[in-house]
Amino acid sequence: MGMTMTQKILARAAGVPSCSAGELLMCKLDMVLGNDITAPVAINEFFKMGATKVFDPDKIALIPDHFVPNKDIKSAENAKMMREFARSQGVTHYYEVGRVGIEHALLPEQGIVAPGEVIIGADSHTCTYGAVGAFSTGVGSTDMGVGMAIGECWFKVPEAIRVVLTGKPRGYVSGKDVILHLIGEIGVDGALYQSLEFTGDGVASLSMDSRLTIANMAIEAGAKNGIFPVDDVCRAYLAERVTREWTAFEPDPDAEYARTVTIDLSSLELTVSLPHLPENAKPARDVKDMKIDQVVIGSCTNGRISDMRMAAEILKGHKVAENVRCIIIPGTQQVVKTCLAEGLVDIFIDAGAIFTMPTCGPCLGGFCGVLASGERAVSTTNRNFVGRMGAKNSEIILAGPAVAAASAVMGRVATPEEVL
Amino acid sequence: MKICSKVIKYGDHVDTDVIIPARYLNTGDPAELAAHCMEDLDSDFHEKSLSRHIIVAGRNFGCGSSREHAPIAIKASGIPLVIADSFARIFYRNSIDIGLAIVECPAAAAAIADGDEVEADLDAGVIRDLTTGETFTAAPFPPFVQKIIDCGGIEEYVKERIAGGEHQ
């Protein structure tokens, strides 16, 4: 029986010729990631295990992005602990405030992740790097601590759902609409313990930024990872970023899949997910009269340059509604610079939005846009769980950048054609 | 390992944001985390956890963020066991790693009611609802995971490997 892309990557990393779903493998790791919330717990575990040195300082990424620039004394202590660990261990991929970005925007942008690699991160959205054909999955802090110590992690080989994308998306439909629609179809546990393996002629029409958004939210369907084939679009993206050798893996023609889900991109509509689960997906135009208090455009899901451009296109020459705070959060310093160079920052400020530093901030109710009780936000982030962005009776409607920008102008959930 | 206690029951998709809200993630201290465990889902959780030590829940328990603070908060609340229809995979790994016992058993998750007295024999994989008299069987852990548990969690397992001079 043939193997899926994920199974091939895991077999290579475990040094075995083949593997099948359900098998347990100990795999060598190409990158171990942590952030200012999860790494401090992992560092404590690392030392408790008796480790003294990381297995390879080039294969650890420690990214202060969640509560930085630090929001309070306790978060500053956590960031300090991670910084000191990074320095004492000689960790190559530690980025200080001013050079850092949101981890899952930064790592692909800087070529720190590549096809065929096995990556774990103590952050659930580590699955983002499947967009470049890597096996990449979220773990907890203890697994991260083990990974830093021995450079290995055990995995149960997942079976896969084959997601066939056909056609080309229309207008402002982008990766976010694809993944919200998919989660709506299969549910928040629809891919539990499984891979989502994307394929089909529609993949070619999706930008790398869209693919990163889709893979990023694989976890919101319960998936272990989401993975894309390495095609010409991906190769062009990697050529500018990755200098080391990498290997692309393709699924075997006779690979077995748990099931196949087909999405026709050409008929896909701008999509939102209503409170309080990402599976509550609906076409944006069907959502009427939902007044909002805040819009957030950014995060590891939608904080890349295409997201900023899409938001700017809609906000240009318009004003954010009087009763709405529109918070635009670029994913990395490179995104900030491009926004400046292309005049996007002027558009945002002239529209009455705030353009901030890169941070996870409000996505998890940290800072920089926490919601008060009874407030409602349209957000390009990834989770609309109870209390995720602030007060437990606040609400989040998930959307892509086009719907978020249009909603900011209209003061309610809206689509771009209502604004343009 | 046998655990006998009254049950606190929850529904489907209990996410890690409600198990421990991110506003408390500026600390990793188990006692501090336990003080806020489940507060956005059930404001009486802390009081309940003083006399009831098993959580029974529906599908996809622990979905969302990878924060290990979530199983740590549950364990530090005096809950050594969670029985659910299914678990989100990162939460599942984290629980094994930190030594919070978790049992996937759809039949038990559906039948056991809030406040029932339950006895769980984890070695035998048998769960008894002493209130109703019903008995359920759970699948045992895969051998590889059982080995980690036998080592007292992944920390001891790695300690042994490092002490063996394999990595440092």
Describe the structure.
The complex is a heterodimer of chains A (420) and B (168). By secondary structure, chain A is of the alpha/beta class. Chain A has two domains: 5-264, Aconitase, domain 3, CATH 3.30.499; 273-418, Aconitase, domain 3, CATH 3.30.499.10. Helix content of chain A is 30%, strand content 18%. Chain A has 13 helices and 18 strands. In chain A, the strands form five sheets. A five-stranded parallel β-sheet of chain A has the order 4-3-2-5-6, with helices on one face. A five-stranded parallel β-sheet of chain A has the order 16-15-14-17-18. In chain A, helix 2 (38-48) links the parallel strand 2 and strand 3. In chain A, helix 10 (305-315) packs across helix 12 (344-351) and helix 10 (305-315) runs parallel beside helix 13 (401-410). The longest helix of chain A is centred in the first third of the chain and has 17 residues, at 73-89. Chain A is globular. The mean pLDDT of chain A is 97. Chain B has 168 residues and is an alpha/beta fold. Helices cover 35% and strands 20% of the residues of chain B. Chain B has a seven-stranded mixed β-sheet with strand order 4-3-2-1-5-6-7. The longest helix of chain B has 10 residues, at 89-98. Chain B is globular, with a radius of gyration of 16 Å. The N and C termini of chain B lie far apart (34 Å). At the A-B interface, helix 2, helix 3 and helix 5 of A face helix 5 and helix 8 of B.
